[in-house]
Every structure is written in structure tokens, then in C-alpha cells.
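Archive transcription. Copying these from loose printouts into the bound notebook so they stop getting lost. Printout 1 of 2:
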Amino acid sequence: MSDPITEFVTFTPRDLASHPSAPFGAIASTLLATPGVESLHTGPQHEDPATHLLAIRWTSHAAFTAFAASDRYTPWLADLKALLAGPPRFHQVRLAHAAAAAAVLTAPCTEIMTAYDIGRPLFPENLRLFSERMAAACAAQGTRGWHANAHGEVTTPIAREVDGTPGPAAVLLIGWDSVEDHALAKGGPGPILDNIELIRTGRKDVTLHHYNLEQLSRDLGSLTSATQACFRQMLRGSPSNAHGEVTTPIARDVDGTPGPAAVLLVGWDSVEDHALAKGGPGPILDNIELIRTGRKDVTLHHYNLKQLYM
């Protein structure tokens, strides 16, 4: 029987100035290559842009357990922590309705409400009723900006504060077009106010945040923010480098299937200088792993160009 879980990792990147979107690179690539990772989503919090979220949809809890027990997990976690200003916070949720969970995480704005120290079984049941009633009404009424709802219990006790006492918790996720659409929906008569009393009791505390998440995938074209951040990290302070995404799908071969692509240009005095730079310790070898994954194929050529004048 399938036992999908969604893992949430909250963190603060060490260097937001040079990595405004997603400071992952090899971190994300390791996850994307891990069996059982169904999708990966990341982005900043609307209320506090210094706080970021990584959401990992696992096909089963066994898949996560296998990764956590593998020899890849400890180096992956160490690499992640090295990029952060402080320890990351982890928790996992069994979300009802897998299709709805995917729709919520891919919406332009993801609202996440976490209820702490919940009373069982009353609060989980009331949360289910709230989520399902709201979703049905929003779908029937065509609520502006609403995408989907998902809900579930956290698999292990957690606390609101880092030094708090862990307890049972539950999560409600709602996908919106924008924070403004959420504010409009809860500001007047409608599905939220009609059912909100269901989740106002039976829990000791609650947090509510909005995230602007982007889905990352094995396809380079879907790695927009992560890829650009990797290039920025590799090329920072190098005026002779340029990079960017190709505006239309292209293929490596004439008869190949076009797909998204990106380009890196580096200026050298000679091919020999490039060979010397990549042949030993230095900026290229220090950062090359950032662009060895997340793409299906690559070509590398050197050109001797001349500028033509009018």
C-alpha cells in the first residue's frame, strides 16, 4: 500500500545577496536523483523572505528511510548545513489527497497553517472537515485565486519554537494565486468564514505563512532559479563570464527533440589557458559539480571570433 509523505525543511540561507532564490545546486541534484523523490519545491516565505522552505514529496516513507540510511545522506546533510545561517528544521506530513497536495505546492502562492499541541482525535477530524468543505465550496463557487487544499498530521511531535516542548501537530496547505487572493477570501462571507470555527479550538498554538515555491525537476528547464543561482555562485566576480537561458527549445542534434537549454560563455586568451585553468585546483574544479547534474546533455566548443564593424 502506498504511504506517501511530504517533508518540509525550513531554513535560512547563509548568503542571500548572492543566492536570492535557491542556494542548492548539488544539494537539489542529490535529492532529484534519489529513488522515491516524486517532486521538489523551494522558495522564500512572503512574511520573512530570509526564511526559505524546501518541500520534498516522497512516494513512501520507506523511500525516505532508505535515503536516510544510505551513505549519501550524511554528506548531503552536511553540505546543506554548510549553506545555512543556522540549523534547518525538519518535519514530515502525511497529506490526504496526493493530487491536491501537488496542486497546492505548484500554486503561485502556498499558504501553510501549522497547528501545535493538537487534541486527538477531535482536531484532525475538524481539520479534515474544514479543508474538504472549503475546497468543495471554493470549487463550486469559483473562488478567486484558489487552487486546492491539502491537510494532514505531522508524523512526529514538533514545537513551534526551537526550544519549545514538542507535541502532536497538523498542517493545512492552501494554494492561491497570491496573498491578496487569500486575504480577499477570508475577509468576507464565504467558505473560509463559514467553516473557520472548526479549527479555532482543539489546538494550543498556530502559525500561518505564505511561500512562493518553485518546482525543481530533473529537466534543466524546470530548474530556473536553482540553475541561475548555481551559475551566479560559480561566476561571481568573473567579468569575462556570461550565462543565460535559450529563449526557445533546441536540440543537440539536428534530428533531436527540442527542449529547454542554457548557455555558459567564458572568455579566454587561448584554448591552452582554458585547459590549464580546468586541469588543476582552482575556481573551475571548486564549482564544477554545480553544473554536472540537472541537464541531460552538454556540448563544449571554442571559437575564435572577430567583431565586425559597420
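Printout 2 of 2:
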Amino acid sequence: MLLYAPFLRGNPFETRSRGARSLRFREGQKLMIMWTTFFKQHPRNRMHLLDECPDLIDKCYLTDDRQLADSADAIVFHYMDHDFLLDDLPKVRHPSQRYVFLTVEAPPSYRILQSRRNLRTPANFFNWTMTYRYDSDVPWIYGGYWVSPERSKELGFTPENLPFDEQTILENKTGAIFWLVYIMIDKYGACAENPYKRDACARSAECEKDLGSMNFFYIAIENTVCKNYITEKYFERYHLPSVPIVMRRKTYEKFVTNLPSLFWILPN
């Protein structure tokens, strides 16, 4: 965790004591502001997700209203977005506030972004990290958090029924492997030579279910090898009736048991 104290020395922004809180949220709630968009999506479009967690609603108030920045307990910045700009940062900062560095990408990706945009934040600007890494101050784990069926019932979650009948799964298989990115197997996506396959199935589209039903395996390999980094290609398709091909066993064994029967793992 980066400490706030060094930032107070020689920083380009004004700091002052926190003023009176706005009446737009209840006393005792923690106010969190999303300063940027998240992959060009406004946070207000996802506020409904808090409805599924009534305990959080009582404890937290999440908004993208910058006018409340003076009262915020934490301000979150998505580092990879186009609207994270050095000339558009808060002009006033309180010593008790926490500035949160948010990214779900591996370091090579945002280093490329830094180079392209000449993006350099002030030294010790961020207090906390919110990333896919388990040692982040606020872990945002790819694929979310999984609970056992028993615990799921206790929490009142609605189960998702996935195909499990072997005969039903196998009878539709016509191909060996498909990959939606870049490989000469059964290839779909931007790099497919066949114009039809290039546009036939957009990423995360419903047609991926058909591809998963037709193939025994799909390739879910990370575009970079970093600590705790697991591609979303696995989590977005865990429900498909095909076996994911992944790499680096030590990355997956932290959160998945019974690895040999669930995965085809490339050598470390």
C-alpha cells in the first residue's frame, strides 16, 4: 500500500480539512466516487448491481458525481481509460481520502498506454491498488468470488444450471478446438482468413455457446505472463461444455481444485 504522507510534500494540488458532508447520502456510509469511466462505461449504468448486496447499500454510497469529491472517502481512477487525464484530476485533496488505482489489465498493457499518452501521475499519487492481484489493497479477482453450493443456498443465491450429461455434451461435437483470437485451428475473430468467420461471432456473443457445443476444447491463454493474471477468456466461457486449454498451473491452482480433470494445461 502506498502511504498518503509522502504525497503531501511538494504535491501540485491543494489539501485542506474536510468540510461538511452532503445530505445526499446517509450518515455513516462511506462515499466512493468513480472519477473516470470503466472501459468507456459510466458507473451510473452499473449501480443496479448494488441492489444484489443490501448490506453494501447500507454501508457504501457509490457515485460518479464529481461535485461530491470534497466529501469522498475514496476516489477511484480507472487507469486504462481515455478520460484519465493529468489535467483533469481533483484540484483539492483531503489527508483522510484514499485515491485508488484501478486496473484489471497486466502491467505490460498499461505501460504501453503510459508510453503512448506520455502519462505520468505525480509521485505517490495513489494510496491503494484495486487490481486482479490477490495482494492488492482491494482485490478485484477475475471471475469474481466462488462459494460452495451449500454456502450458496445459505446466502440465497440462484444457482446456474450448466450442462453435465456426457451424452448430450458429446453428441454435438464436430470439431476439436476453437479459439476466438489468433491461431490456425478453428479460428473466429478479427484475424480469421475466412471473411464469414471474421464477423460470424462477436466477442461474448450468444453464438459462442454454439462454438463451445461443437468443439471439445477452447484455447484460453493469457496475452502476458504476470503474477495472478488470468485471462477473462477463461471466466467468460467457464459455462461452455468444452475444456479450456490454459498455461501455468501455479496460477490456476490457487483458485481451482481438481485441475487435471477440468483443464488441459500447457507446460509451465
